[in-house]
TrEMBL record:
Example GO molecular function: chloride channel activity
Transmembrane annotation, as ranges: 132-154, 166-183, 237-260
Topology in membrane: Multi-pass membrane protein
Family: Belongs to the anoctamin family.
InterPro entries noted in UniProt: Anoctamin (IPR007632), Anoctamin_TM (IPR049452)
Main location: membrane
Species, as recorded: Crotophaga sulcirostris (Groove-billed ani)
Keywords: Membrane, Transmembrane, Transmembrane helix
One Pfam family it belongs to: Anoctamin
Name recorded for this polypeptide: Anoctamin
Subcellular location: Membrane
Limits of the Anoctamin transmembrane domain: 121-308
GO CC entries: plasma membrane
Amino acid sequence: SLLRGADEIGLRKPVKAEFGGGMRSFSCEEDYIYENIENELYFFTSQERQNIIRYWLENLRAKQGESLHNIQFLEGQPIIPELAARGVIQQVFPLHEQRILKRLMKSWVQAVCEAQPLDEICDYFGVKIAMYFAWLGFYTSAMVYPAVFGSILYTITESDQTSQDICCVVFAIFNVIWSTLFLEEWKRRSAEFAYKWGTLDTPAESIEEPRPQFRGIKRISPVTSAEEFYYPPWKRLLFQCLVSLPICLTCLSLVFLLMLGCFHLQEFVLSIKELPRIIRFLPKIILAIIISACDEVYKKIAYWLNDMGAW
């Protein structure tokens, strides 16, 4: 079943050297050409197994006239994403494998001054997570050079303004050269990882299903002749002009006025020298609370606008 699922999603696997090597989308008809195909325990990584199972879940299709919890499905509509969007299913996620987690805990989390086990991370968490930690490790190592060079400049810089200006220019030039070399080297390093993990020449993703939150009127598609939800473009444009744009401008204006008020309060507090020292920090505390509160409110507004198809 896993092999058939890998064939359906076009999972890329390494090919044996005698058949040309490299990476190729898996095919059940030519399964003998892939490395480790004889060992069913190690042919698929944990992440690949979870990926196949999730693909099956997300592609459970409704038959004509099927309904659940007063939800009417279209023929061929994915069931799990629709139920998740309607709140019937709260969340779909894979369970951890404690055996592999313990191994990663020793070789990765608890390891000191050792290289990250990027291949193991990729096998368990997937390419995206592994690529992130690969970049994070590469960036952290690359930061050693400007740190050392900046420390040396700081040490030899004299107290006069001319010497400080010269060192600032030198450090700026160094940073320009360092950032250029950093980006070019990361391009090479990321290409190596992408080739090694089978994502360098990954073909474009096939056409995805419309997001489950999409709502509209039922119609027959002029392209596929299948039943689909359709939302007129003029309604979307009207919603953008009369709802989305005013709400966004109102939110921006509100944030601007609140920040301006906090700055004026800060100036007023600083002008009174008799106030205790702790009171002088009160406007900054208020501003931090306002920013946190606005962030939560605006996040909900953004989700609502996105679900309405405003942007």
